[in-house]
């Protein structure tokens, strides 16, 4: 599945030179304690690969890799960096590398304590071993950090979102869970301009519960509000998202990462 038009070296260059200060090699406990993992969710077939940018290796593959790539987990591991460059659709590859570069500049500009809360969600086309092109979401989550809180081990949670027919492809969202900031990037606009959400904190809480399949009555009980108040919130949320039902709201939330 190697793609000669995509050069993996460009991804390495996008990360820039990082003088990692590695304090320990055993990172299993750090994975369990990662503050971002509990907030992640997917809709569709998925698999995950864990990449190490200190030695530029793929260390672990889990989930249904074959369904999304046409390759077994062992094949993905064997290909290492060539898998990444071969998987991204050639026309979307430059945007992916440019977004990585912007994200790393942003992370390096933050205070040390804030860096662990930043991750990137990509939406781009990918090429399976058979040549079939699909649209994927890649939630790129930093798992392990060096002594300066610069990430060097990342989980890439890949979900096939072709079935929800996303229209704005490619695009990416840089998310800072510490500050609550989001930055939406696309090929014509790679500036890190802050995106202002239209939803209140309460509405975001309710969106999260709706995604979990909760009814208005269940939401009311969980949040300690009346059924009518929960219904009103749901109606206002659908109006703001310009959708007519919860299924469409899930699609909206998946593509915009409002929660």
From TrEMBL:
Annotated ranges, domain HTH luxR-type: 191-257
GO terms classed as biological process: regulation of DNA-templated transcription
UniProt entry keywords in alphabetical sequence: DNA-binding, Transcription, Transcription regulation
SUPFAM superfamilies on file: C-terminal effector domain of the bipartite response regulators, PYP-like sensor domain (PAS domain)
GO molecular function: DNA binding
PROSITE patterns assigned to the protein according to its UniProt record, in alphabetical order: HTH_LUXR_2 (PS50043), PAS (PS50112)
Residue span, PAS domain: 49-104
Protein name: Transcriptional regulator, LuxR family protein
Record organism: Mariniradius saccharolyticus AK6
């Amino acid at each position: 599945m190697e793609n000669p038009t995509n050069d993996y070296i460009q991804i390495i260059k996008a990360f820039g030179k990082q003088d990692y200060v590695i304090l320990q090699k055993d990172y299993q406990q750090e994975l369990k304690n990662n503050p971002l993992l509990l907030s992640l969710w997917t809709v569709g077939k998925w698999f995950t690969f864990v990449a190490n940018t200190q030695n530029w290796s793929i260390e672990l593959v889990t989930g249904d890799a074959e369904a999304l790539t046409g390759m077994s987990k062992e094949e993905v591991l064997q290909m290492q960096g060539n898998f990444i460059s071969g998987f991204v659709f050639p026309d979307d590859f430059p945007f992916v590398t440019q977004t990585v570069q912007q994200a790393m500049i942003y992370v390096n500009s933050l205070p040390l304590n804030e860096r662990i809360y930043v991750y990137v969600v990509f939406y781009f086309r990918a090429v399976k071993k058979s040549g079939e092109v699909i649209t994927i979401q890649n939630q790129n989550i930093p798992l392990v950090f060096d002594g300066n809180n610069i990430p060097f081990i990342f989980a890439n949670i890949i979900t096939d979102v072709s079935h929800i027919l996303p229209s704005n492809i490619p695009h990416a969202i840089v998310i800072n869970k510490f500050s609550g900031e989001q930055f939406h990037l696309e090929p014509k606009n790679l500036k890190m301009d802050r995106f202002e959400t239209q939803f209140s904190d309460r509405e975001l809480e309710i969106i999260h519960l709706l995604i979990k399949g909760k009814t208005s009555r269940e939401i009311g009980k969980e949040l300690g509000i009346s059924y009518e108040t929960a219904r009103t919130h749901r109606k206002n949320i659908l109006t703001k998202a310009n959708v007519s039902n919860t299924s469409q709201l899930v699609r909206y939330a998946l593509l915009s990462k409002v929660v």
